[in-house]
Amino acid sequence: MNLSVQLAPKNKHGLLLANPVITASGTFGYGTEYSHMFDIQKLGAIVCKGTTLEPRDGNPQPRLAETSCGLLNSIGLQNIGVKALIKEKAPIWASWRVPVIVNIAGETIADYAQLAGELDGVAGISAIEVNISCPNVKAGGTEFGTNPESAAEVTVAVKTATSLPVLVKLTPNTSDIAKIARAVAEAGADAISLINTLKGIAIDIARRRPLLGNVTGGLSGPAIKPVALYMVYEVAGAVDVPVIGCGGITTANDAIEFIMAGASAIQVGTASFTNPRAPLDVLEGIEQFMKQEGIDNLTDLIGVARR
Ligand SMILES: Cc1cc2nc3c(=O)[nH]c(=O)nc-3n(C[C@H](O)[C@H](O)[C@H](O)COP(=O)(O)O)c2cc1C
What we know:
Blueprint: E1 5-6, E2 16-17, E3 21-23, E4 45-47, E5 64-67, E6 70-73, H1 82-93, E7 100-104, H2 109-119, E8 127-131, H3 142-145, H4 148-161, E9 166-169, H5 177-186, E10 191-194, E11 198-201, E12 203-204, E13 209-210, E14 216-220, H6 225-236, E15 243-246, H7 252-261, E16 265-268, H8 271-274, H9 278-293
Helix pairs in contact: 2-4, 4-5, 6-7, 7-9
The structure holds flavin mononucleotide.
Residues 24-27, 49-50, 71, 73, 75, 77, 103, 131, 134, 169, 196-197, 220-221, 224, 246-249, 268-271 line the site of flavin mononucleotide.
């Protein structure tokens, strides 16, 4: 069986994955944290925590709240900063078989360009995922992802600063996601990933105050799956670059739904918090499904629900 997928067909380096299962940013650390739990080299790719120019402590606690079938988080891009990432993490990744994609976030377009420039040519980094969709930061974040013009401007700035494949990650907190997707595809994105979290809040009724230190957070997990699937379906019909589906994927069946809706690959996020082996379980379940159904090439499944 052939599960490989090419996520950056127009890029000179390409982004060839052995299989379509990727870990979602912010839910799998730098990959190293999970390497003692299972053979992470079997995965299609790993996306690391959102990375900024300077290290960040993130938002005040509490930053996590469980909801029905989901999780609200307001981490606020706590990370070690790009310099430490290049010095401490990339050399480890360079010895891995599994490609690592670095998720980046900035407060200005110039920040995104500088981050992309600093990561260009660093051994151990296979691609960049541009987060224009973080709901938990004051500046930047969804500001760029909710407006087609600024989404396109960020994409052009990043593409100009790096020759690495560039994935742009979209927010669901917008009225017309297909419009944003078309704008970033036209601006040169090699692939589009979606969705990031949906904005939400929780109230602590004993304190009569919002539960999260940041008041608002981002909702993830099974609760958002139908919304994510719908948006992937919409975007896959709107652009001709590969689409990477994300949002509530917990089982192989979830992943197969996204692939049939038009995703070339999928990301497993919150599911890793309850089952650290979830990405591998999803991969093994996809393989089993293909065997049962007599499907030799994963690419034969991409978008079948659209025809
Ligand atoms: C605790 C936490 C931290 C996250 N951090 C990031 C981040 O740094 N960058 C990013 O693009 N997305 C981040 N996300 C969003 C996820 O990558 C993913 O898009 C979202 O959670 C939906 O997928 P899921 O339902 O499978 O978790 C984070 C999500 C969670 C739960």
